[in-house]
Design brief:
heterodimer; A: alpha+beta; 2 domains; six-stranded antiparallel β-sheet; 5 helices; flat; B: alpha+beta; Beta-Lactamase; 5 domains; five-stranded antiparallel β-sheet; 19 helices; 58% helix
Chain lengths: 191, 725
């Protein structure tokens, strides 16, 4: 019996160690690459609500290299309006996923940004493109879902969509820290 | 039955799980193809398959630990299980690993072959060619834009819009826009009146513009079209103004350029993904390899268990049989050779069990028979001796020991010659039976007389061959009985008859003879002369004394023939002897008595026992009468093991001749001048009536010792009246 318990314990410890290493690698960010939500606010104009936010993007080496080699990067900005409740999960009043695409046009030698409305913007350099990507201005929200409600909070999470990468890249992307570009959850009170 | 159902159910569940995993692996391999509809599920499938592999790995670890435990405990079948598992694993792993290696190599080579250097160059050249084609267009667009800017020199902002509209109409530009230094739109015109907001350059372009005064570039536009964006500084403008002209590229040209662009991008992407592609393929193959090996290992364990189970049962059954358990039935195995073996084993153990039971019963019967015979032999007063064909002693019962006066148990397996050597007093007996058996008579009967322990014994011997179960002769049997007491009784009876007749015939005339002699003496006293009177007196006295002696002798005869009634009662033998000893204390100089302190009471006739003791003491007294150093020793001891009283009366007189020893207790045997020869005969008769024995043995250097053994009655014998009554 003691041998059996010892074997089980060693197996559990080994599994925990492997999981720990994977988690460490996954959470490890290379250099200063990453996404950070700097500011965000929702303002009301008559009966309409608009989101304005400023997000800082900094591509990792892997993402930059992939972009320059013709890989399209997809970023998803998840905007939510939640109502925190004590002892209960937050109530989600509104969820708005905003998808952005960034790719490099070899012939034009330009970075092409496509927003959620399929509007295309061309940039000769990456920095302005990332800057433009990080500006959310006056994005309309469904007023009826958040009107006349109190104690609401806005929430923004931004992440590079690994599942939108070409299939062969996905396994490596999941285990490579350079591909784990995601922001912290940014919360702010609405009213 | 229930176990079988559970096993089948478990196997079905496991088979279902494995099938699910197999389908998952198939979908994953299918998803790696670019055109697969499972493309989006690739990551989920990969995760599921990794979990499945981990599950199987856990299953393998569990089985390995189980096997290790079995091996450590030296459980039956663990070695075979290990061998089968290793064999299975080796058989499955080697070809699978080979297939994996070559498949992986082939995939890598195939991926590499898709990316040829020539194609790479061709793609690069085609892109360069496209860019060169655009160079001419951008140069002419730049030239045209400069010319337009020259027109706008010194133009005020108020008329700028109108001027731009006019210029756009005469130029090939689709849109003309005037910017301030800060990038603010001053005026704009577009060929499409619906476009209200002009396309603005980004900050980088504006920066370049401010630094160099000019910017030209191509840009992708909506609907996969390509546009040329040209920006130049408007000279002599105050404040500083910039002109942006956007020239559309012909649709056909744009389409061709886009085709080149897309192809180049796809090729570049593919080139970039080459390592990832190899990794994905290798990962998929590796997972399939691991999955296959784990399934093979698991199957090996299942197969080994199934295969070993009947063997394990057989080994357990064999051990049980070796331990003597024939009732253990093995569970019936599968309908194959192993199952047949198990069934045969069960059949064999059943038969052995039945045979064993029969043998055990037969053995028990034989043992019972043997015990029965042994009991009979033990309690048989007859002596029984068994010999094998070479005349070695095989059996001797208690009766034989008693009759022959020897313990023959240590002589078992001794030859008859060795027996006679070991016990010289049995030499004649051994010689006799040897000769009798050697005479080849099937059955014989003889009377044999020999002396043992200074006593003459007459035995009635009966010999017969012993036969085995197959009627073959296996030895000889000798049955004998001590007929000495019978002969003695017959003799005593004869003597009693003689004594009775003598007493009857002699006693009757003795009284008239005595009376006549006394009358003669009385009547003729004084009538004869002195000499005749003296003669008469002497003669009549002689007649009277002799008649008295004859009457006394006749009384002895009468007593011997018709003893007084036997009246036993509980007596203390020690006190009786002491009382009798006191009578002789004055007559015998040296009379020593030695009495055991723990003498039990005995059941005897005190008058007759007194007669015995007085007779023996008197005999001893007469034996030492002529000796100054005559001495009589009387001892009495209790023998608890024999439950008897031993009385010894020894003297140091002249003793008894050896020739007389064997006849000394017979009537009319005496060494005395005036003895009737009935004293010791009466003594023996009384002792016999008490169930005891009497013997005489010489004492060295001189004398005789009479030893009497009288039984001590137990409670049981007292209640039943005792064996002597």
């Amino acid at each position: 019996m003691p041998h059996k318990n010892l074997s089980r314990l060693s197996l559990v410890l080994l599994s925990a160690a492997v999981l720990g290493v994977i988690l460490f690698l996954v959470t490890l960010n290379s250099s200063s690459a990453g996404i950070a939500v700097k500011t965000a606010r929702i303002h009301q104009n008559s009966d309409a609500f608009f989101l304005t936010a400023r997000i800082h993007y900094q591509l990792s080496k892997e993402a930059h290299s992939a972009l320059k080699n013709g890989i399209t990067l997809n970023f998803t900005v998840n905007v939510s309006v939640i109502e925190p409740r004590p002892w209960l999960p937050n109530k989600v009043h509104l969820t708005l996923p905003l998808t952005y695409q960034l790719k490099y046009h070899t012939l034009a030698k330009a970075f092409q940004l496509t927003d959620m409305r399929q509007q295309q913007y061309n940039f000769s350099r990456l920095e302005p493109a990332l800057h433009a990507l990080g500006i959310l201005k006056d994005i309309s929200l469904h007023a009826s879902l958040i009107q006349n409600k109190k104690n609401l909070q806005g929430r923004i999470k931004v992440a590079l969509d690994i599942e939108a990468l070409p299939l062969p890249m996905r396994p490596m992307a999941y285990i490579s820290p350079g591909w784990h570009l995601r922001s912290n959850t940014y919360l702010w009170p609405i009213h | 039955m229930a176990n079988t159902l559970i096993k089948k159910k478990n196997h079905l569940i496991t088979a279902g799980l494995l099938l699910s995993f197999f389908i998952s692996f198939y979908l994953m391999s299918h998803a790696t193809q670019a055109s697969s509809r499972f493309n989006e599920l690739f990551t989920s499938l990969l995760l599921v398959n990794i979990l499945a592999t981990a599950f199987l790995f856990g299953l393998l670890i569990k089985n390995v630990l189980w096997l290790r435990q079995q091996f450590k405990k030296k459980v039956i079948g663990s070695r075979i299980t290990l061998k089968v598992v290793l064999l299975f694993f080796a058989i499955s792993s080697i070809p699978t690993a080979v297939v994996f290696y070559f498949s992986n190599q082939l995939l890598h080579q195939s991926v590499d072959s898709w990316l040829d250097v020539h194609i790479d160059e061709a793609m690069q050249n085609s892109l360069t060619l496209s860019q060169r084609s655009f160079d001419n267009k951008t140069r002419s667009a730049m030239r045209e834009t400069r010319q337009l800017a020259e027109v706008l020199e010194n133009e005020s902002d108020i008329f700028l819009s109108l001027t731009l509209a006019r210029l756009r109409e005469v130029s090939s530009a689709a849109e003309l826009t005037a910017f301030s230094k800060q990038g603010r739109i001053i005026a704009s015109t577009n060929v499409d009146p619906g476009v209200l907001i002009p396309s603005t350059p980004d900050d980088a372009i504006l920066l370049l513009l401010r630094q160099s005064g000019e910017f030209i570039g191509i840009e992708p536009s909506d609907n996969d079209n390509i546009i040329i964006r040209a920006l130049v500084e408007i000279k002599a403008s105050n404040p500083k103004r910039y002109l942006q002209a956007i020239y559309p590229v012909q649709e056909g040209f744009s389409e061709l350029a886009n085709t080149v662009e897309n192809a180049y991008t796809a090729y570049q992407e593919f080139n970039f993904l080459r390592q990832s592609l190899k990794f994905s393929f290798t990962l998929t193959l590796f997972l399939i390899l691991i999955f296959t090996l784990l399934i093979a290992s698991w199957a090996a364990f299942v197969f080994a268990r199934e295969l070993v189970e009947p063997v394990r049962q057989l080994v357990k059954g064999t051990k049980a049989v070796a331990a003597g358990d024939y009732e253990n039935k093995l569970p019936v195995g599968p309908h194959d050779e192993l199952g047949f073996l198990v069934n045969s084993f069960n059949e064999m153990t059943s038969k052995i069990s039945a045979t064993r039971l029969t043998a055990r019963n037969a053995q028990r019967d034989a043992e019972n028979q043997h015990a029965y015979l042994a009991t009979i032999l033990r309690h048989l007063s007859n002596g029984v001796l068994g010999f094998d064909l070479s005349f070695r002693l095989m059996t001797a019962n208690q009766g034989a020991n008693q009759i022959l006066g020897q313990d023959l148990a240590p002589c078992i397996n001794l030859s008859i010659e060795a027996l006679s050597l070991k016990h010289p007093n049995l030499e004649k007996f051994c010689l006799f039976i040897n000769q009798s058996f050697a005479a080849k008579e099937p059955e014989w009967q003889h009377e044999f007389t020999f002396q043992i322990q200074q006593q003459k014994r007459t035995l009635l011997l009966k010999g017969a061959p012993l036969f085995a179960a197959d009627d073959s002769q296996s030895g000889y049997i000798l049955i004998f009985d001590d007929v000495t007491p019978i002969i003695q009784s017959q003799r005593n009876a004869a003597w009693s008859e003689v004594a009775q007749r003598l007493a009857h015939e002699i006693k009757n005339p003795l009284t008239p003879i005595q009376l006549s002699a006394e009358r003669l003496q009385r009547k003729l006293h004084g009538q004869l002369d002195a000499a005749s009177d003296q003669l008469l007196k002497k003669s009549t006295n002689t007649i009277i004394h002799q008649v008295s002696a004859m009457k006394s002798m006749v009384d002895d005869f009468s007593n011997f023939a018709k003893p007084a009634k036997f009246s036993p009662k509980r007596i203390a033998i020690g006190e009786l002897i002491e009382e009798i000893s006191l009578l002789y204390q004055g007559q015998i100089k040296r009379l020593n008595t030695h009495l055991d302190l723990n003498l039990p009471t005995i059941f005897a006739d005190p008058i007759r026992l007194r007669q015995v003791l007085i007779n023996l003491i008197k005999n001893a007294q007469e034996a030492i009468i002529d000796k100054d150093s005559g001495c009589i020793d009387i001892s009495i001891n209790y023998l608890p093991d024999k439950q008897s009283i031993k009385i010894c009366i020894a003297d140091n007189g002249p003793g008894v001749d050896n020739s007389e020893l064997e006849h000394i207790f017979e009537p009319y045997v005496t060494s005395k001048v005036h003895g009737t020869g009935l004293g010791l005969a009466i003594v023996k008769k009384i002792i016999d009536e008490h169930g005891g024995t009497i013997s005489i043995e010489p004492v060295q250097p001189q004398g005789a010792n009479f030893t009497i053994h009288l039984p001590v009655l137990t409670n049981k014998t007292q209640q039943t009246g005792g064996s002597i009554l």
